Every structure is written in C-alpha cells, then in structure tokens.
C-alpha cells in the first residue's frame, strides 16, 4: 500500500498523549440507522450482513457520517460477530431481536470442534473493506479497525444471540471453566490474527469492544476477560507504515477495574459515561490516553442541554493532551442528525480552550 499523508492526525496524536488544537471526536455506531442515507443503502443491499460483505457499500456507509460531521476518525463498517460467523456458527439478524446464531457452543465437545479462522482467507471481505476505505479516505482522517473481546464474542456464541442474564454462559463458566478457557483461548488467537490482518490492510488504530465484561465479578473479569485482551494486545502489530498503531480497550461498565485495564499494555482505555473522566484521570491518567464519555441519550435533549453536557465532560477531563471524545456507548437509531450537529458544534467551540498552551508548545516543538 502506498502511504498517503494523513491530513488530520488529532485522533492518533491524542492517543499518543501528544498536544492537539482541539479534542478529537468519533462516535460508536457513527454509521448506522440514525442516518437516512444509511437506511437507504441498507434497504438497497438487502441485509446488514450484505452491506458488510460488499466492500464498496461498506466503504460508502463508513464515509457517510464523515460527509455530515467534522469527525476525526472513521470506523470500519462491519460487526464484531464476523469471527464466530467465520467459525461456522451461522450468523443472522432477526428484525427487532438483534443478532442470532444457528449453532451454539455450550459443551467441551462443542469447544473441541472449533478452530480459529484464518482472517486473510475467511474474512477477506473485511480486509477488502479496510483497504477500500483507506483508499477512499485518502488521508482525510485515520481509520479505526475493531474486534469484539473474546469474552464478549463468547457471550453471543454460547447464548446463541443477545442475552439478559447470560444463563448458559455463566453455567459453562462455573461448571466447566477449562472448556471456557479453551474457548477464550481460541478466540484470543482468532482476534489477534483478525486485528493484525486489519492493520496490514490499513487500519491505523484498533479498538477491542468488551461490551459484556461488566457482567462479571472482579476475579472472573480478570481471569476470563482482561487476561485474554492482554494476550491479544501482546500479539498485535504495534507499528505499521512507519507509524504506531494504537490499541484502545473498552470494557462497558468496567470503570471499577480501570487500574487493571490501564496495565494491560494498550495505549488507551475507553470509558462509558458512568465513569467520571476526572476520577479516571486521577486514577490512571498518566499511564494511558482516555476515550469518553458522553451519555448518547444526551442527544435526545435540546441543543442547550447537549452543549452543557459537552462542556461538563470537557471540564471533567480538564486541560492537556490524552483525551479522545466519544459517545459513551453507541448512538441510538432514534437520534436526530441535527442533534449530532449540535454536539459537534459545541465540542468545536468549547474544546480548543483546553489545549491552548499545549498547542503552542507543540508548534514550538515543531519549529525546533
Ligand atoms: O461503530 C460503527 O459505526 C462501526 C460499526 C459497528 C457495528 N457494530 C455496526 C452495526 C461496530 C463497531 C459494531 C460493534 C458491535 N456489534 C458490538 C460492540 C459494541 C456494542 O454495541 O456493544 C456488538 C455487541 C455488536 C453485535 C451487534 N450487531 C448487535 C447487538 C446488533 C443489533 C443492534 C440492533 O440495534 O439491532 C448488531 C447490528 C449492527 N451492527 C448494526 C450496525 C450499524 C445495526 C444494523 C442494522 O440493522 O442496519
């Protein structure tokens, strides 16, 4: 791949805790159903997975939010469940019920029958999407690749879809912990290979989504979720095309384990809105960058309330580098795009003051 210069590197600079002129921002699910142009494309493609499997369409919907909003990163349009799908579990989406698998993994025999997919071969459609998006971005902003954490992928594979109580999964964890470890180990190998393939295809940062780590007790979180994310981080390509490829770990509801997460070897920790940035910064702020954390439901409120909440989040992190602004956990399909604009406007107006002196230093540094 020929290297195009990156025109906007705020996101990568913030992850490296280097000075920036304003706080960079991206949103989880920034491409999706809240955008009419996405709904139009999805109807045309047939299904969500058809969109993911067609690299031109995946590229088009990845870029849609960037046409509307001054975002500082693009995120690959795909899903975390592509790995179990490539393992032969048969992913499908039932309207209104979320993801489902035709086959589940619940016994030691089920686990023994599994193997990690070869990402370049079995998930080549994802790699084609990554390289197409990189080409079309043409250096505008960096591209984020992603995967689910082994624990979060296991929740869907064992339950066969979304779950409220994780009954089958927890039964397996407590009854047959060895089989659970074996499953998580296969998934950790699969995720490492998958993320490295995305990096080779052009992903400039990667995020691991541990959406369901927060459902565990502290010892179980450390043993069954964090340990495998650590294993992945230690196996990732950390420099590509002459640039560091930062890794972000995001455990939803993981605020109580910040000190542990910050020691897992990643460049940044993603926070949801239930963890206060000022507290997080006081606890781990110098170790890693922090990504977070506006409650996405704030975007249902009026513009002045959105602005007040953006101001509060910025003030909570305070001055200085190392902050990536993010919607705590995904934008709702019912959000009005105008309210996203109100959020972006507020951030653009309010965030530069938190970087003034630092940015001056950066310019001094560049001149030296
Ligand atoms: O953030 C982005 O813009 C990138 C794309 C992305 C999607 N899913 C697209 C998507 C990312 C990063 C994900 C991650 C993902 N997928 C997670 C981890 C983050 C999280 O949300 O907790 C999880 C748990 C999944 C599994 C998944 N995929 C669920 C539970 C659903 C159904 C959601 C629903 O509201 O029905 C999906 C489908 C999905 N993935 C959609 C999108 C845009 C909706 C697809 C559609 O109906 O058009």
Commentary on this structure:
By secondary structure, the protein is α/β, with parallel strands linked by helices. It has one domain: TIM Barrel. Helix content is 49%, strand content 12%. It has 17 helices and 12 strands. It has an 8-stranded parallel β-sheet. Strand 3 and strand 4 form a beta hairpin. Helix 10 crosses helix 11, helix 11 packs parallel to helix 12 and helix 15 crosses helix 16. The chain is globular and about 60 Å long. The C terminus is likely disordered. The structure holds coproporphyrinogen III. The site of coproporphyrinogen III (CP3) has 22 residues, from strand 4 and strand 5.
How would you sum up this structure in a few lines?
It catalyses: uroporphyrinogen III + 4 H(+) = coproporphyrinogen III + 4 CO2. With 368 residues, the chain is of the alpha/beta class.
Features:
single chain, 368 residues, alpha/beta, TIM Barrel, 8-stranded parallel β-sheet, two-stranded antiparallel ribbon, 17 helices, 12 strands, 49% helix, globular, disordered C terminus, binds coproporphyrinogen III, cytoplasm, Uroporphyrinogen_deCO2ase_HemE, decarboxylase, Uroporphyrinogen_deCOase, Uroporphyrinogen decarboxylase
């Amino acid at each position: 791949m020929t290297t195009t210069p990156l025109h906007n590197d705020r996101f990568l600079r913030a992850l490296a805790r280097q000075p920036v002129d304003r706080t960079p921002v991206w949103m989880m699910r920034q491409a999706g159903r809240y955008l009419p142009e996405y709904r139009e494309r999805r109807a045309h493609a047939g299904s969500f997975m058809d969109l993911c499997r067609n690299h031109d369409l995946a590229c088009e919907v990845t870029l849609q939010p960037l046409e509307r909003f001054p975002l500082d990163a693009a995120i690959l349009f795909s899903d975390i469940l592509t790995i179990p799908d490539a393992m032969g579990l048969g992913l499908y989406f039932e309207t209104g019920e979320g993801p489902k698998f035709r086959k589940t993994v619940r016994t030691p025999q089920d686990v023994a029958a599994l193997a990690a997919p070869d990402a370049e071969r079995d998930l080549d459609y994802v790699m084609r999407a990554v390289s197409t998006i990189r080409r079309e971005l043409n250096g505008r902003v960096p591209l984020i690749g992603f995967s689910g954490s082994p624990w979060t992928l296991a929740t869907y594979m064992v339950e066969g879809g979304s779950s409220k109580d994780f009954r089958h999964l927890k039964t397996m964890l407590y009854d047959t912990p060895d089989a659970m470890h074996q499953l998580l180990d296969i998934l950790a190998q699969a995720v490492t290979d998958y993320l490295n393939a995305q990096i080779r295809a052009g992903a400039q940062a990667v995020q691991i989504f541990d959406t369901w780590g927060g459902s565990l007790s502290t010892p179980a979180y450390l043993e069954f979720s964090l340990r495998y994310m650590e294993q992945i981080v230690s196996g990732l390509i950390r420099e590509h095309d002459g640039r560091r490829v930062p890794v972000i770990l995001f455990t939803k509801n993981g605020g109580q384990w910040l000190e542990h997460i910050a020691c897992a070897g990643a460049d940044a920790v993603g926070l949801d809105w239930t963890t206060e940035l000022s507290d997080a910064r006081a606890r781990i702020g110098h170790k890693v960058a922090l990504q977070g954390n506006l409650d996405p439901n704030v975007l249902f409120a009026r513009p002045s309330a959105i602005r007040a909440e953006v101001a509060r989040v910025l003030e909570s992190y305070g001055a200085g580098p190392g902050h990536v602004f993010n919607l705590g956990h995904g934008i709702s399909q019912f959000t009005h795009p105008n309210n996203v604009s109100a959020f972006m406007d507020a951030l653009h107006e309010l965030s530069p003051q938190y970087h003034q002196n630092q940015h001056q230093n950066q310019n001094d540094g560049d001149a030296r």
